[in-house]
Amino acid sequence: MKAARKLGRILSAIVLKLSLVGFAVAFALLAVIGTPEPLKTSLGQSGVYSAAVDSVIEASAEETDQSLPLDEPAIQQAARDAFNPWLLEQSAHRMIDGLYAWLEGDTDEIEFTIDLSDAKALFIERVADYAEQRVNNLRPCTQAEAFQLAQQDSIDPFELDCRPPVVISQYRDDIIRELEQSEDFLDDPVITAESLADQEGATTNEPWQEAPAAFQRLQWMPLATGLFAFAAAVFLIALHANRRSGLRQVSMIIFSTGVLVLISALVLDYLIRHNIAQGMLFDMQDTVLQGALVSTSVALYGYFSRAFILISAIYLMSGAISLGIFWLLRKPKNTPDTSQPPRQPNSASHGKKPTKNTR
What we know:
There is one protein chain. α1 (2-33) runs parallel beside α10 (243-277), α2 packs antiparallel against α5 and α3 (48-61) packs antiparallel against α11. The protein has 359 residues and is mostly helical. It has helices spanning 2-33, 37-46, 48-61, 73-82, 85-103, 117-136, 143-150, 169-181, 211-238, 243-277, 287-328; strands spanning 113-115, 190-192. The longest helix has 42 residues, at 287-328. A two-stranded antiparallel sheet has the order 1-2. It is 64% helix and 2% strand.
């Protein structure tokens, strides 16, 4: 019987410690991905949207087969004005909200709609204005140059060296019509989850069909591990012959788990921040965008780290307070028992013989 109780105490102690660690990990993970707000806040504060706009513009300017001279500052500024960081942020928020609605089981598929019609129209308007202004500022063409231009089927206003003797607004209208009908430039300005399907025709959530179930299980993990820890603590106390010793062991387990979680948090903090700072997570040519993504990762990990350290502090405080109470209420050693009246000395115990009455 004693061996069974001892084995039960060992198993209960192991379950209690594992449950406490599991609760800390689940709580910290939910602090990062439990709601969309940490991701939205981290992205917004990192400057990733501004960096993404500049990165796309610079990458597009390096392409040789382009209909617009994206290497010209005026065209780049038009793109920045139309597809500004605020627009990207609002679009990203819609995508994130659609993702979490799917993860939480509110929708069967990822659903979001991003309408870039106004941004496309603004960009086309700015480019057309620049084309008209550029042609208007050129020198007049000579008769030979004008005759040569008249023989061409189409004229690119961005490549003209002189101003032809035609209505300048014609070039503006040509640019607007060309960009509106272009299949390479936002042929469909309304972006949905279905339009982001991969080449095989699978929707964006098909490769991750088990993600909602896993996410919802994670949401229940703090409650489940908390109940396991409570049940293990109750069993551990009940298996002790003295409840006081059982409570003391539970307190020691909570305190030691707090130490373990705190050390783990500090080690993880060093390793993860060091790897992120060294650029090991992102190896990109665009250093500005890489820096923004690094800032986003650091901010997201900050949510995890703070939650992990918070739980360790709670464990340490709870265990220390409990152990302190037990130490204050401990029974002093070698204390005489005053519950029984003092015994009268017996004359026989001193070796004295009773006197005999000779009378």
